[in-house]
Amino acid sequence: MLHFVGVPLQTLLAVGGAAAALVVTLYILKLKRRPVPVPFSRLWERILRDKEATSLFSQLKRLLSLLLQLALLALLLLALGDPRTAQNLVEGRNVVVLVDASASMQATDVSPTRLDEGKRQLTDVVRGLGGSDRMIIAQMDAAVTPLSTLTNEVSELEGALAAIKPSETRADFPRALRFATDTLRGLPNPEIIVVSDGALGQAVDPLGAVDLADTKLSFISVGEGSKNAAITGFSVRRYPLDKSRYEVMLEVTNTGKEDLDLDLVLCGDGSLTDTTRLRLKAGERLPRFYPNLSGASRTLEAKLAGVVSGSDPAPDPCKPGALVGGDDLPADDVAYALLPERRRSRIQVVTTGNMYLEAALLLDEYLDVTMVSPKRYPADGKFDVTIFDGVAPPPAPGSGHIFYLNPSGKDVPFTVDKEILDDNPNAPLGFDELDEKHPILRYTELSGAHVWRAHLLKPEKEDKVVGASVRGPMLIAGRRAGYKFVALGIDLRDTDLPVMISWPLLLLNVINDFVEEDTGYISSFATGTVWRIPAPSQLETATLVDPSGVERTVPVQDGRAVYLGQRSGIYTVRAGTDADKYETMFAANLVDPQESRIEPQKELAVGETKAGEVSGFTVGVRREIWAYLLFAVIAISVIEWLTYHRRVTV
Amino acid sequence: MGLLDFFSRGPKSLRGRTTAADDELFDDEFQRKLDYLAMVSKRVFSGAMRAERRTRKTGSGVEFADHRDYAAGDDIRAIDWSAYSRFQRLLIRLYEEEEDLSIYFILDSSSSMGFGDGEKQRHAKRICAALAYVALANLDRVTIVSATDELSGRMPETRGKARIFRIFRFLSGLKSEGHTDLEDSLKTFVAQHKRKGLAVLISDLYDAKGFEKGINVLRYNKFEPFVLHVTDPNDRSPELRGDVRVYDCESGEEREVTVTQKILERYAKAYDGYVEQVKRFCTKKQVAYYEASVDVPFDELILRVFRRGGFLR
Q1: Contact B112/A39, CB-based, under 8 Å?
Q2: Is A553 exposed, middle or buried, given 0-12, 13-18 or 19+ CB atoms closer than 10 A?
Q3: For residue A517, which of A234, A235, A243, A236 has the smallest C-alpha distance?
């Protein structure tokens, strides 16, 4: 049964009757023919005599022509009426399509990739969109990126599908669902279609579980296999007391259901550092530790590759692009790390002589130490760090950051309080409270140090107390106009700290903190998170060069360039002009065991809502019959035109 | 003296007496071709075929032709006394009388000849002028009449090459109007022209009453018909399409027709049939016939006529 939702049926009948009468009248009226002179009409008479014999056929042809015109009229009127079948009288659907572009969608268990397969299936859905349906396509990875408007234009939606690019991050499913529910709020017949391999996790974010309410949830599952091994951990650190050497911790996990034979290759600065052949059982996590490595000064790269016919790895496994395969997801088979660039630090020590201090400074061969007596301060030159040992003159220009040891006087950026003595046997003087997360306390154990005499320090409001006794702060850190400082209110001769390993570590940690050279774990940024990369604080923007060489401008906030990274590899940040140029490099990795578990999920549930199969999108069938009627009108017109000009119907 | 000699005489030359229309229709190039054709005709008909035309009519010629019996009233000076002495019969000596040929050009000037861009009429005039010039150059007597359903114009008998410009002027003044009725017009023609001769009919032969009747009028009255059938490819393949009402440009008769490719093909076939019908009739009646298509240059046609013979003997 057809219902007319356009022009009402009564109106259509009235208009149709009038128009049909007009058409018939015009047809009955004799055609006024164009007069054309001929030189000798008798010749025409000869052929017209023959033609008259077929006049009955001519009449029939004329009748056919009239019927065609009436048919055209009827089709046009029907199209104006916008007829719908009863089941299609429902309002159009509003659909948000969330296409998972996370790293696992790069798996090649379906050809060419899961993402491409998902896009292919989605193409059929787009082409089966009803005329009153509207759809928006969004890419779901660490962020949600809408790639089209809410539209029913198939070309725009196909363009959006083509624009989906894979990323090397985890998909932020809750955020994507929030986007979808926000988009569909208040719209009739809302529907969310998720195209994914199902490794999406729970739809819960800090705001709580996502509530889909009455929104229909559909799921297109892609993927077949689960064969995958991944580098799930990759850390490097320099040895604090020998920064030319480093150690590497790697963790490899077989996330699939079958055993895998793999080569684990470690490359330093593009040269082979180590190769290990591994046999990983299904689900096995295998940590590997490489101590006391040297040779690489900048980049480290770990790779997993399948064993080819039991032979050795390729001759140059560290070549870019070499060693791929072995499992279904190559994206997690590579990890990167970057060692900070080593440079010599210039240290000025203002002291009347302090063996403990001088001895500790000898431990780091990358320190250029200049000893100067308080009277001859400042020494010539520019320094990264100045250590005031028992003195506190006003800092001269070029002194760099300052480490006060047992400061006194008023030319210090804080207040030196009263002297305290270890005179209470029930409460020995020492560090009772320590901010152990502070970088200058890394690897140290100051709580065991005994102190006989000290000066309490009164920090300013913005300063940080790093170590304090129950009687007050003794170790503080802070920042003043243009320089950092650390102050220890203890004379090294009034404590047993110098005989502990913690003293040189504390000293070197302070220096490293000042010159921002980290001896800790050199971990990379994780893809899919917002990176805060150190950059000159006076700048507002910096240039980020991604692993493929593409440059983009990123904002700098509080001395950090901010960027949501979605690809693993080695990045470079550049800032400033030629005279004041700043450049640093860092690594980014997809080290995400959840994303590496690529076994596809065939079902998807959000809270109580279980996703169903996609339905109601049949390619080639539109819900509006008027489109077909109009098409028929055009087709008949074309046929009429052709037959007229070929003199078939006249 | 050729035509160009006339032109070189300056402003008072014959050329100076031509009109603008003459210049267009009978331009220098045309006149140059006429000279050439006249020269070619002399070469073709030199010797036995001199320009003069002999008739069987006995008369005062010098060349003996035959004898016949004496009849009362005959000039006794013509009695062949030698024959009388041998045969005892009075025989009269007959001599071939030399006389110049009368050539009549009957030019169809009906509306159908000027149909379309009037190319048929122009072509007919050029052919007429060319043949007339050749005839004048051969010392024949030339008369031109224009025919529709009557004799609408007449240029009196003339001779001598110098009169060609008169012919030009006459032809230039002819308009294509009226409808064709060769029978009526040629009946008038034969009534007005007692002297028999060659009657060159230049026409498209679009005669609703039938072209045969007109030609037969000439035949039955002892004229020697010579048909130049002027045809135009545009008549055969008109550029018509769609629903039209065709009307005869002469009679105004109307027919409704929807012109399709098939109809056009059938029309072309009918046209070819008509031309073939004319040819068949002329062949059957031993009437000289030439198709003068406007596509074929007039000089080429004239040469073809010369080659076949029959126009000048």
Answers
A1: yes
A2: exposed
A3: A243
8 A C-beta contact, residue A90 and residue A189: yes
For residues A627 and A131, is the Cβ–Cβ distance under 8 A? yes
Question: pLDDT per position in chain B (313 positions), as tens?
Answer: 444 343 333 333 333 334 444 456 677 777 777 777 776 665 554 433 333 444 444 555 566 777 888 888 888 888 899 999 998 889 888 876 556 678 899 999 999 999 888 899 999 998 998 888 888 887 788 999 999 888 888 888 888 888 888 888 899 888 888 889 999 999 999 999 888 888 999 999 999 899 999 999 999 998 889 899 999 999 999 988 877 888 999 888 888 888 888 889 999 999 999 999 999 999 999 888 989 999 988 888 887 777 766 565 4
Q: Give the CATH fold of the A94-224+600-622 domain.
A: Rossmann fold (3.40.50)
Residues, chain A = 650
Find chain A residues with C-beta within 8 A of B271's C-beta.
43
Return d(Cα A288, Cα A220) in angstroms, integer: 38
CA distance A255 to A280: 10
pLDDT for res A153: 85
pLDDT score recorded for residue A161: 93
pLDDT score, position B12:
35
Q: Which residues of B touch A30 (CB under 8 A)?
A: none
Give the CATH class of A524-588: mainly beta
A40, A42, A649, best to mutate vs chain B, most B CBs in 10 Å = A40
Report CB contact under 8 Å: A43, B271.
yes
* Exposure b/e, A438-462, CB count within 10 A at least 16 = b: bbbbbebebeebebebbbbbebeee
Q: Decide yes or no: CATH 3.90.550 for domain A229-338.
A: no
Comma-separated ranges of CATH 2.60.40 domains in chain A: 229-338, 524-588
Does any CB of chain A come closer than 8 Å to the CB of residue B177?
no
| Domain edges within chain B | 3-47+101-308, 54-99
Burial label, B70 (beta-carbon count in 10 A; 0-12, 13-18, 19+): middle
Q: What residues in B contact A38, CB-CB < 8 Å? A: 115, 238, 246-249
Whether residue B274 and residue A43 make contact (CB cut-off 8 A), yes or no, is yes
Given a contact cutoff of 8 angstroms between Cβ atoms, the answer to whether B145 and B151 are in contact is yes
What does DSSP say about strands A190-196 and A216-221: parallel, antiparallel, or unpaired?
A: parallel
Cis amide linkage into residue A378, ω under 30° from 0: yes
Separation CA A484–CA A478 (nearest Å):
6
Beta bridge partners of A458: A415
Amino acid in the structure at residue A342:
R
Q: Does B244 touch chain A (CB under 8 A)?
A: yes
Structure ipTM? 0.76
Residue A247, beta-bridge partner list? A237
CATH 3.40.50.720 assigned to B3-47+101-308: no
Q: Which two tokens stand for residue B236?
A: 């055969």
Tell which residue, A596, A616, A611, has the closest CA to residue A304. A596
Strand partners, A582: A575
* Strands in B139-210 per DSSP E: 141-147, 151-158, 198-203
Q: Average the pLDDT over each of A229-243, A324-338, A527-541, B49-63 and give the range with the smallest value.
A: B49-63
Distance CA B23, CA B46 (A): 32
Question: Comparing C-alpha atoms, which of A350, A358, A275 is closest to residue A318?
Answer: A275
- CATH 3.40.50.410 occupies which residues in chain A? 94-224+600-622
Round to the nearest angstrom and report the end-to-end CA distance of chain A.
38
Are A45 and B274 in contact, with CB atoms under 8 Å apart?
A: no
Phi first, then psi, for residue A456 (nearest 5°) are -75, 150
At A83, list the tokens.
């007829």
Architecture of domain A345-515: 3-Layer(aba) Sandwich (3.40)
